[in-house]
Amino acid sequence: MYSFELKTMIAAAPHTVFAVITDPAYITRWDYCQWVQDDMCLAGRMRKRDEEGRLIESEIVLYEPPFRFGLVTPLWVNTEDTDEGTFTTRQEFCIDTHEDKSVLTVKMEGFPSEDLCDRERNSWGGYFLEKLKKIAEQG
User: Fold this and answer.
1) Of the residues 18, 64, 94, 137, which has the fewest C-beta atoms closer than 10 A?
2) Residue 81's closest CA among 52, 116, 121?
3) Residue 77 in contact with residue 85, Cβ under 8 Å?
4) Among candidates 120, 74, 134, 67, which has minimal Cα distance to 98?
């Protein structure tokens, strides 16, 4: 299995960054989803409908506001390669403080191929983290 880790500095307090990661009103602004519904508690569920209308349901496996949040999510890939298809990832968001800013570390693991892992790393590193950071810094 393949994994990655990314970090970014955000000019916002940890509680603000945590809200942007977990609050449906913020998630729909930085993630590719039409709507989000969640049960914000350990062992709760987060449900999202993506732009193609698919329902994605995750289990909350780490919930320590405002510093740590984690999900286990089944994902799928449209491919002819039989080694790919449906697989489960674990996403973990850790927020540390540095002076008056937050350091967000995003860890994702469980990718069945290096290509899928690289694709997701590039999406997070090149799009999602920048959007999330911008929203958190705007308050």
Assistant:
1) 64
2) 116
3) yes
4) 67
pLDDT digit string, tens, across residues 90-139: 999 999 999 999 999 999 999 999 999 999 999 999 899 999 999 999 97
Q: Where are the beta strands (DSSP E) in the chain?
A: 2-10, 33-38, 45-50, 55-64, 68-76, 86-98, 101-111
CATH code of 117's domain = 3.30.530.20
Does the pTM surpass 0.70? The reply is: yes
Q: Return the closest-CA partner of residue 125 out of 8, 35, 1.
A: 8
Q: Kindly indicate the confidence band of residue 54, based on its pLDDT and cuts at 50, 70 and 90.
A: confident
What angle separates helix 14-22 from helix 129-138, to the nearest 10 degrees?
Answer: 120
Mean pLDDT of 22-40: 89
In total, how many domains does the chain have? 1
Domain span holding position 52: 2-138
